[in-house]
Amino acid sequence: xxxxxAPVYTLKGIKIRFGSKQLxxxxxxxxxxxxxxxxxxxNGSGKSTLLKIxxxxxxxxxxxxxIQPNVKIGYMPQDADLSGFKTLREAVAAGLDKHDGxxxxxxxxxxxxxxxxxxxxxxxxxxxxRRKATLARALIxxxxxxxxxxxxxxLDMPTIEKLEKIIGxxxxxxxxxxxxxxxxxxxxRTTFWLDRxxxxxxxxxxxxxxxxxxxxxxHRPKTSQQKNRRRNxxxxxxxxxxxQTQHGTPAASxxxxxxxxxxxxxxxxxxxxxxxxxxALQTGD
Length: 285
Fold this sequence. Notes:
- The chain has a six-stranded mixed sheet with strand order 5-6-7-3-8-9, with helices on both faces.
- It has eight helices and nine strands.
- By secondary structure, it is α/β, with parallel strands linked by helices.
- It is 31% helix and 20% strand.
- It is globular.
């Protein structure tokens, strides 16, 4: 029997308040090496805040944080500020531990892999190009825990599928917030559900979230009509993906607006879609 391996990261009894709102009440979680985690919850439940606590950007009001020695954490924020960089190459290289030129090959590797317009000015680059540069910056030192807040925003389909493969083969742990249900289903093997100030863990990926949500007893089971609508949405998205694969998709640097997402039939959590406590997979906290 293999020896027990302690989690690489643990939170216990985490509390945080913003003004009069108690956002977290005794939140506890642990992250194991190699976990692939989808973080879901209502809009305003604190998903982005939780990622910032794990990244060390925000300190909780109370609670304990345990990190294994030498564990490195990489963080991709939802809206990265790249205004201090002249080129996207500089933005990617900012993620390096050393800036003496000895690790420039890592910058080159990720620019090539994600097909980033390295010489583009971040101020004028497309949303997709800026997003890819931010992703490369988080990945460049291969952190033990990779935190991704809405990583598919502005990305074209080929880049999203490439990201799915990167996460699938990634040796470290990955925690993802996304409103893209298909993406979450494809990449996650564990689900954290942030619900009214507490966190639940399910050792299954996002594809099992609805069933798990129903079993908690907090929600009415779906009717046959609702389940049929869900199946139809998924089938439409699969047909759309197939069509894109056959006919090609616009590159991330094309003249799509900064808010452009995947096109075609939506397979995401919209404002009024996917039940009351699941709409939170939209962008934002």
